[in-house]
Design a protein that fits this description.
2 domains, 7 helices, elongated, alpha+beta
């Protein structure tokens, strides 16, 4: 049998685009033959799909010293309401995946997850009557504290991975996210206009200004810390 250590890159589109690494989960399995590029791996124990579609292996590497195959696989969830992201990640944890990457076992730069609380000043106002699919467009004080923490964690992740940075900056400044459909539906909404202005503002920043904002965003709690707390 051959050991296979694979990373699952979860992309929640939007706000995260498919261009970056996504939120990474990992697990190790055994297979009866060497792994290869394009191999699809399936088990109902770790895949929520009832049909054997499988995870397609990419960037397959054989680590001679550790005697293990390494591979990446990717899954994009389009238009999943932001309010459901934390629960979706917990569902993957329930299937035996864990947050992290096989890269954690190698001497790579470590971005600390032990930062102070987000300090976003959000209230615990009830959002029971709000439509969850629109929760990301509401003002922060009209949403549960947990949701606001997840949004800040997504800002940090997007900033650290250089993923959709202008949107992450606008999310950071407004505490909201507006998709292209949201913008088309509410073109005259002052909140939407402010969002667009902030996206444009980020693109005009110098490299130093952009990196200064990324440093500030890195102080938010990580998505890993938020999920594991739950």
């Amino acid at each position: 049998m051959f050991r296979l250590h694979m990373d699952l890159h979860l992309h929640y589109v939007p706000p995260i685009t498919e261009a970056g690494p996504g939120i990474i989960m990992t697990r190790e399995i055994e297979i009866p033959f060497p792994a290869f590029e394009g191999l699809r791996v399936y088990s109902p124990a770790f895949d929520d799909c009832p049909d054997p579609m499988g995870f397609t292996l990419k960037e397959v590497v054989w680590d001679v010293d550790r005697q293990v195959f390494l591979a990446d696989t990717y899954l994009a969830s389009h238009d999943l309401p932001m309010a459901f992201i934390a629960d979706d990640i917990r569902a993957w944890l329930g299937r035996g995946w864990r947050l992290g990457s096989f890269c954690d076992d190698y001497p790579e730069p470590d971005y600390s997850d032990e930062e102070p609380a987000d300090g976003d000043g959000d209230t615990d106002a009830s959002a029971a009557n709000d439509d969850l699919e629109r929760l990301h467009t509401l003002a922060p004080q009209r949403r549960p504290k947990e949701f606001n923490q997840v949004l800040k964690a997504l800002v940090r992740h997007m900033a650290e991975t250089f993923n959709n940075s202008a949107a992450a900056y606008a999310m950071d400044k407004t505490g909201r996210f507006f998709s292209d459909d949201d913008i088309k539906a509410r073109p005259t909404d002052p909140a939407v206009r402010r969002w667009q202005e902030l996206c444009s503002e980020f693109t005009r920043f110098s490299d130093d200004e952009q990196f200064a904002w990324r440093d500030r965003a890195a102080k938010y709690r990580s998505i890993e810390a938020i999920i594991m707390k739950g």
